[in-house]
Specification:
alpha+beta, 2 domains, nine-stranded mixed β-sheet, three-stranded antiparallel β-sheet, 14 strands, binds zinc ion
C-alpha cells in the first residue's frame, strides 16, 4: 500500500521508515527497492482480505486523485473494515482490480460499498484484449455506424466480459493502449435486464476529471442511467408485444423499438462520456 500510519499521520514508504496498517493496525515494512514501486508491505497478512498487492497500474490510477482520497478505510455497521482504493467526496468508491476476483467476493464488495466503480485491468491475461476485440468487431451498435452503444451478442467469447457482466456496479475495462487510442475505457452498463451487456466508450481523462470534480452523480443521472432505463424499458416492451426478444444480429439495430428521442440522448451521453463538446 501507499500509505501507512505513523504517529497518526499518513506516510509514504521511505527506507527504514516504520508504520502500521490503517486498516488492521499491524506493523508494516517499508519496501523501497529499485525495481518495484515503493510501498508498504504487511509482515503478516492483512485482516482486510480484499487487499490486493499493488502494481504500478494501481499506483498510477490512484495518483490521478487527491492523496486524501486514496486508500480510505471504510467501515460498515457490523464493524467490518476495508481499504477503498479511492473514495471521492461524493461517496464514490473506485476499486482498481488487477487479479481475478471470485463472483461471491465481487458481490460482497458491491454490497459493502454502495456507490462502487470497478476499473478492471484488461491486460493481465494475454487473451483478454484479443477476445474483447473480437466481441467488439462482431457487435452491432444501435445507431450504426457511430457505435455509441454496443450490444454484446456473444459475451461468451470474452472471458473478461463473462466474469464481470452481472455486476450491479459500474465496470470500466482498461486495456491501456491496446486499442488505437489509449484514452478509452469501456463502460459496461450496470446489470441490465436478463444480464444483457451493453457497452460504451468512456474517455479516461473525462472519467478522471468527473470524479475529481465531484460530478459523477450528475454523470450517472444525465448520461448513464437514462440509457439503462430506456434500453431496458424498450426490451421489456418489445418482449411483451412480440412474445420474445429477437436478438438476431442482422436485425439488431431495429429490435429494440427504441423511441426516436433515444438517439438524441445517446448522442448526449456519448458526448458527455467522451467530452466531445460541452452540451450540458
Ligand atoms: Zn492491514
Amino acid at each position: 500500500m501507499k500509505f501507512a500510519l505513523f504517529n497518526d499521520e499518513r506516510s509514504e514508504a521511505t527506507k527504514g521508515a516504520k508504520g502500521v496498517c490503517p486498516c488492521c493496525g499491524s506493523e508494516l515494512i517499508a519496501k523501497c527497492g529499485e525495481v518495484y514501486i515503493h510501498h508498504w508491505a504487511h509482515k503478516n497478512k492483512c485482516d482486510d482480505r480484499w487487499w490486493e498487492n499493488e502494481t504500478e497500474w494501481h499506483r498510477n490510477w490512484k495518483n490521478e486523485f487527491p492523496s486524501d482520497w486514496q486508500e480510505v478505510v471504510h467501515h460498515d455497521k457490523s464493524g467490518e473494515k476495508h481499504i477503498a482504493d479511492v473514495k471521492t467526496d461524493e461517496g464514490w468508491t473506485v476499486e482498481f482490480q488487477h487479479s481475478y476476483l471470485k463472483p461471491e467476493e465481487r458481490r460482497s464488495r458491491n454490497n459493502f460499498y454502495k456507490k462502487l466503480i470497478w476499473v478492471v485491468d484488461g491486460t493481465r491475461r494475454k487473451t483478454d484484449l484479443k477476445q474483447f476485440q473480437k466481441v467488439i468487431n462482431e457487435e452491432s451498435s444501435l445507431d450504426k455506424p457511430s457505435q455509441k452503444l454496443l450490444y454484446v451478442h456473444f459475451p461468451e467469447w470474452s472471458r473478461l466480459l463473462m466474469e464481470w457482466k452481472d455486476s450491479d456496479s459500474l465496470i470500466l475495462l482498461d486495456f491501456k493502449d491496446g486499442f488505437s487510442s489509449n484514452e478509452d475505457l469501456w463502460l459496461i452498463y450496470p446489470r441490465m435486464y436478463k444480464d444483457n451487456i451493453f457497452l460504451s466508450q468512456f474517455s479516461r481523462t473525462a472519467f478522471i476529471e468527473y470524479l475529481n470534480n465531484n460530478m459523477f452523480d450528475e454523470i450517472m443521472d444525465k448520461a448513464i442511467n437514462p440509457i439503462k432505463v430506456t434500453v431496458e424499458h424498450s426490451i421489456k416492451n418489445n418482449e411483451k408485444t412480440t412474445g420474445y426478444w429477437n436478438t438476431k444480429k442482422e436485425e439488431s439495430h431495429m429490435w429494440l423499438g427504441l423511441p426516436k428521442a433515444f438517439l438524441g440522448h445517446l448522442k448526449l451521453t456519448y458526448n458527455i462520456l467522451n467530452k466531445i463538446e460541452r452540451t450540458y
